[in-house]
Amino acid sequence: MSQFYLTALQLSICLGPMALGIFITMKIFNIPDITTDGSYTLGAVVTAVLLSNHWPVLAVLPLCMIAGSVAGICTALIHTKLRIDALLAGILVMTGLYSVNLIILGRSNVPLINIHSIFNTLSIFNNDIYNQLFVALLIIIVLIFLLRYLLLTDFGIGMRATGNNPIMTKSMGINNDFIKIIGLAIANALTALSGFLVAQYQSFADINMGIGIVITGLGSVLIADALRIWMNVSNIGLQILFVLAGSLIFQLVLAFSLAMGIDPNFLKLVTALFVLFIVALPRVSSQLKRAS
Prior knowledge:
Blueprint: H1 2-14, H2 16-28, H3 36-52, H4 57-81, H5 86-105, E1 109-111, H6 128-152, H7 154-164, H8 166-171, H9 176-202, E2 204-206, H10 213-231, H11 236-259, H12 267-291
Antiparallel strand pairs: 1-2
Helix pairs in contact: 1-6, 1-11, 2-9, 2-10, 2-11, 3-4, 3-5, 3-9, 4-5, 4-9, 6-7, 6-11, 7-9, 10-11, 10-12
């Protein structure tokens, strides 16, 4: 049973970058970016194809993130230059990415069994799960520091200001369109990084693995937002940690559901209901307070 929850912890860490990407789009830019479904799969697809052709894993990592960032840039350009709604722009790019991913992959799925992965780079523990967990933690810790540093720079503050009040930032001479393009590029690069990690963790890449993944990331961000409001936190570093904590809580809920014997066919339904519960809870609580 403990190994069951360790697996959930490992998966939550691998999906953490994707949750941080949705945090950037949803909470910083207030943009519902559906590109996530496609860029997540794109990261996994690029990883599978390159590793299958014996590319070194450290060379595959930046290429996956670049591919994801290109997807984000496409969405941002459609939104900012063609003045198309961000939600529709994301749907268009996500739809197009399905064909792109299928062309790159060449078939519906590619196994990565007996292929050197990033989780094999360090062998500190005798247990493979502990080694995988250690490598994933190292990656996420580096990511936390880099993202926190970025959001505290002048550019990062410009990103946050653009999301809060684009009219004010435009009057101050900030190029809102450029900020959004870079922001969505970063967000989808992080999403592709999750695809890179999950593909190696589960030892295969599948063309349909990204379907509905945005709900998982959104659930993590909503849990993080609830924690932020409950603890009255404004520190950006703590908000990043809350997103990762949200990812862990989300995966633990799913792991607990499976441990309780729920049919895996109902897992997507459980996911949707849990996200609905997280979204509805604050509003129901506020209505009850007003009624009392």
